[in-house]
Amino acid sequence: MASSYTLSLIFLLTFTINAYSSTPSEPDILLTFKSTIHDPMNHLSSWSNTTTAHHCNWTGVTCITATISSLTLQNLNLSGEISPSICQLPNIITLNLADNFFNQPIPLHLSQCSSLNTLNLSNNLIWGTIPDQISQFKSLKFLDLSENHVEGKIPEGVGSLIYLQVLNFGNNLLSGSIPNVIGNFTELTILDFSLNPFLESEIPSDIGKLVKLEQILLQSSGFYGEIPDSIIELKALTIVDLSQNNLTGVLPSRIGNFLEKLVAFDVSQNNLVGSFPDGICESTRLTSLSLHTNSFNGTVPNTSVANCLNLERLELQNNGFYGDFPNNLWSLPKIKVIRSENNRFSGQIPDSISVASQLEQVQIDNNSFISKIPHGLGLVRSLYRFSASLNGLYGELPPNFCDSPVMSIINLSHNYITGEIPEVKECKKLVSLSLADNNFIGRIPESLGDLPVLTYLDLSHNNLTGEIPLELQNLKLALFNVSFNRLSGRVPSLLLAGLPALYIQGNPDMCGPGLSNSCPSDNSKQKIGISKLACAVISLALLAGILSLAFGFFVYRRSSIQNLETGIWRSVFFYPIRVSEQDLIMAMDEKASRGSSGALGKVYIVNLPSNELIAVKRMPNFRNQSFKTLKTEVKTLAKIRHKNIVKILGFCHSDDSIFLIYECMEKGSLGDLINKGDFQLSWSIRLKIAVGIAQGLAYLHKDYVPHLLHRDVKSKNVLLDIEFNPKLTDFALDRILGENAFQSSSDSKSGSLCYMAPELGYNKKATEQMDTYGFGVILLELVTGRAAEGTDSSEDSLDVVKWVRRKVNICNGPVQVLDPKISSSCKQEALGMLEIALQCTSVMPEKRPSMSEVVAALQSLGSKTRVHHPEMSV
Ligand SMILES: *[C@@H]1O[C@H](CO)[C@@H](O)[C@H](O)[C@H]1NC(C)=O
Ligand SMILES: *[C@@H]1O[C@H](CO)[C@@H](O)[C@H](O)[C@H]1NC(C)=O
Ligand SMILES: *[C@@H]1O[C@H](CO)[C@@H](O)[C@H](O)[C@H]1NC(C)=O
Ligand SMILES: *[C@@H]1O[C@H](CO)[C@@H](O)[C@H](O)[C@H]1NC(C)=O
Ligand SMILES: *[C@@H]1O[C@H](CO)[C@@H](O)[C@H](O)[C@H]1NC(C)=O
Ligand SMILES: *[C@@H]1O[C@H](CO)[C@@H](O)[C@H](O)[C@H]1NC(C)=O
Ligand SMILES: *[C@@H]1O[C@H](CO)[C@@H](O)[C@H](O)[C@H]1NC(C)=O
Ligand SMILES: *[C@@H]1O[C@H](CO)[C@@H](O)[C@H](O)[C@H]1NC(C)=O
Ligand SMILES: *[C@@H]1O[C@H](CO)[C@@H](O)[C@H](O)[C@H]1NC(C)=O
Ligand SMILES: *[C@@H]1O[C@H](CO)[C@@H](O)[C@H](O)[C@H]1NC(C)=O
């Protein structure tokens, strides 16, 4: 009773004072503040003089004893102007406007807020330089301007902010060097200049004065020079991130001194050198612990103070460190991540690594460790990645090497490990195992077939013997490499059908498709698993049958026996061809592969029993299209009848793969001809090819219903028949794969970058103009005789578009870019084609002609001069 009475008295008093003094009331101040703010989502709807809610209950407002102490308007999509009116709130301590869209210079007028100690403008669109008057914010303790567009030099004025505890200028566009005032920030706990790529500064040497500093975050900026020795004075540090700068020199010699509280230490990707300071993380207690490692139960006796006991992450990768890797680091009680790849560290991995009971990740590839792999490693139950390729590891793999139940990646390739590969039992989460290029002997362990998610298996370049275990057929491998061993016997056929990237060469005693030895037709060699295998093959053979159907009929087949490895195969043929899925699968060895077209799949030339050739494109089935959609889409493409477009004869698909079957063209692809480096086609044939491709594209764009975009126009996708008539292939695959899968596979496809229109970088929506661009690049290949991507030698490394652009603007340039093999009487036509090519490859999409305009232009080139020149051979 009494207290509520007092409270209302205070209300009354405040109200009275506000009413009679000249200062507006707090709600009015808030409303004035709101009036300059744009609030599209209406998050501040509670800020209103018509609501009954007390203003202390308005969105983002916090009060202490009924006066406003804090405004937290974070992530509300606000923009507009930050009005100084807010400083009329007498007791406002915190103003947090982070994660909005305020687009203005640093609001200096907020320095009038005499009580303000926290200003958070992180992640807005604040721009401009930091004025020297930033010094007016003298009372601030927390200043966060991170993730904005603040630029220019940091003025000395910041040195006045002597009460700062947090200074965050991270992720801006600051330049120049850090002024020599850092020593003034004696209260500072967090210093963040990270992600300012234009800074060009040494780490200030008076950093050692910031004795309360806990976090120093300078990563990915322009820091150079040595790490100042004074850093070792910073005994409160928990996080040090100096990665991705240009730091040089050695680590301060007494760095061990400041490691007591350290949790994360990252100096990766610099140019640091030298050996690691002696005795780092050393203490008598740790050494004695490491003696009886296996009985260690996780409790750290607290008898003496030791360094590094809190260290969780140590990242030293990509520097020039050498010398012995400090032994103690391997057995720290809290260590989770040890990365030191690409240095020249030597030393051993001690058995006491078993003490590191939190260890998750070890990456020490490409160093000079000379060590056995200790038994203790297998005792670390939290380890999910161990990669130590390119070192001097030797001895045998301990049988428990893969015992961590969370182990996911093991890479021990390029070492000197001997003995047999132990059976693996525990690591059911193993995804990737590389033991390539060691001295392993004996058989491939059958238990690998029991690892349910194993996807990458590389055992190449060892001395393994015996047959490939049939158990491996259980796996869904994406890569299987056993090349260059001494394996024998037959390649399990379901491994072939499972469609991993398969490397089996270099095993002279092995037989099967793709190898020089074919297997004796039937033998009793494969005893285990034969019944399952036979079942699969027979069911396929039976149901696949042989078809011979009238033109235009669609057939739909489906094997009834579902089998884990092959899945269900369904096929549809649009033309009478005689082929079974099994024929296809068996025919797809690497020898038959023709012109890889990157991530979108490979093309195989398959010789049918009837001696006809077909081309089969194998693509991953992303399964984001139903079978019905898939069938409809392929049908749409198969119905195209145009002399410059390759016929689709049919397709089959399983859960894993889609095979598109095309007619086969005798002369292969235009791209292959050009890439051979000896491109001899006569001018008239070049012109015929250009016109043909243009007609094919114009047909897809305008005449065919539905209108289609090719989306991968390049010379590799232009096939030539015996008379060099061009036919486009691989068209409109987006409709088969689905837009998302198509885009993500073509994003990862690097091989044909220079055919991609520049606007593809920002405009993901496909357009006709993008096809036109790709066509323009083919025209450039035809007139210059140069491969689109350029070759290795210095000037030639330019792609053809850049190369031509560089030359044509100089005097006589256009004539110089022409293929010298084009006879002089055809030069005029060639120059005409060059001009069309330049229009098609214009950087501005709207300047490119349509494909039907291109057809007309190319045809008129020919007709203008054709009459006067008999066909020339080059
Ligand atoms: C509320 O504020 C608006 C302007 O901010 C003013 O026009 C209106 O009269 C006020 N209403 C009341 C009830 O105070
Ligand atoms: C704020 O709202 C809550 C209920 O939503 C109410 O209990 C409280 O009294 C209000 N506070 C003020 C100061 O109006
Ligand atoms: C901000 O705006 C975007 C789109 O304009 C919207 O998707 C998002 O949900 C909004 N966020 C908030 C917190 O209102
Ligand atoms: C500022 O706000 C951001 C976003 O919420 C937050 O991550 C950051 O810690 C805040 N800065 C300070 C100094 O409190
Ligand atoms: C550093 O702080 C002192 C007061 O502690 C002040 O006199 C001096 O001006 C400050 N330096 C700068 C550059 O502002
Ligand atoms: C790093 O420093 C070296 C020598 O000081 C200099 O040559 C090099 O350009 C610098 N690199 C960057 C990325 O700043
Ligand atoms: C750990 O082992 C020590 C001695 O070996 C024992 O005294 C202690 O109780 C054990 N602690 C736990 C949690 O098991
Ligand atoms: C353990 O050591 C810390 C310092 O590292 C100390 O603060 C704490 O009091 C010690 N605890 C015991 C039980 O001795
Ligand atoms: C190994 O590290 C060195 C630097 O120590 C580097 O130059 C080299 O490229 C690295 N090798 C591989 C294969 O990454
Ligand atoms: C492979 O093993 C055989 C027999 O054990 C041995 O003669 C041969 O030298 C080994 N080859 C390599 C490359 O280690």
Automatic annotation (TrEMBL):
<dbReference type="Pfam" id="PF00069">
    <property type="entry name" value="Pkinase"/>
</dbReference>
<dbReference type="GO" id="GO:0016020">
    <property type="term" value="C:membrane"/>
</dbReference>
<dbReference type="GO" id="GO:0005524">
    <property type="term" value="F:ATP binding"/>
</dbReference>
<keyword id="KW-0067">ATP-binding</keyword>
<keyword id="KW-0675">Receptor</keyword>
<dbReference type="InterPro" id="IPR032675">
    <property type="entry name" value="LRR_dom_sf"/>
</dbReference>
<keyword id="KW-1133">Transmembrane helix</keyword>
<dbReference type="InterPro" id="IPR001611">
    <property type="entry name" value="Leu-rich_rpt"/>
</dbReference>
<comment type="similarity">
    <text>Belongs to the protein kinase superfamily. Ser/Thr protein kinase family.</text>
</comment>
<keyword id="KW-0433">Leucine-rich repeat</keyword>
<dbReference type="InterPro" id="IPR000719">
    <property type="entry name" value="Prot_kinase_dom"/>
</dbReference>
<dbReference type="InterPro" id="IPR008271">
    <property type="entry name" value="Ser/Thr_kinase_AS"/>
</dbReference>
<dbReference type="GO" id="GO:0033612">
    <property type="term" value="F:receptor serine/threonine kinase binding"/>
</dbReference>
<dbReference type="Pfam" id="PF08263">
    <property type="entry name" value="LRRNT_2"/>
</dbReference>
<feature type="signal peptide">
    <location>
        <begin position="1"/>
        <end position="21"/>
    </location>
</feature>
<keyword id="KW-0472">Membrane</keyword>
<keyword id="KW-0732">Signal</keyword>
<dbReference type="InterPro" id="IPR011009">
    <property type="entry name" value="Kinase-like_dom_sf"/>
</dbReference>
<dbReference type="Pfam" id="PF00560">
    <property type="entry name" value="LRR_1"/>
</dbReference>
<keyword id="KW-0677">Repeat</keyword>
<keyword id="KW-0812">Transmembrane</keyword>
<keyword id="KW-0808">Transferase</keyword>
<keyword id="KW-0547">Nucleotide-binding</keyword>
<feature type="domain" description="Protein kinase">
    <location>
        <begin position="589"/>
        <end position="872"/>
    </location>
</feature>
<protein>
    <recommendedName>
        <fullName>Protein kinase domain-containing protein</fullName>
    </recommendedName>
</protein>
<dbReference type="InterPro" id="IPR013210">
    <property type="entry name" value="LRR_N_plant-typ"/>
</dbReference>
<feature type="transmembrane region" description="Helical">
    <location>
        <begin position="536"/>
        <end position="556"/>
    </location>
</feature>
<dbReference type="InterPro" id="IPR050647">
    <property type="entry name" value="Plant_LRR-RLKs"/>
</dbReference>
<dbReference type="GO" id="GO:0004672">
    <property type="term" value="F:protein kinase activity"/>
</dbReference>
<keyword id="KW-0325">Glycoprotein</keyword>
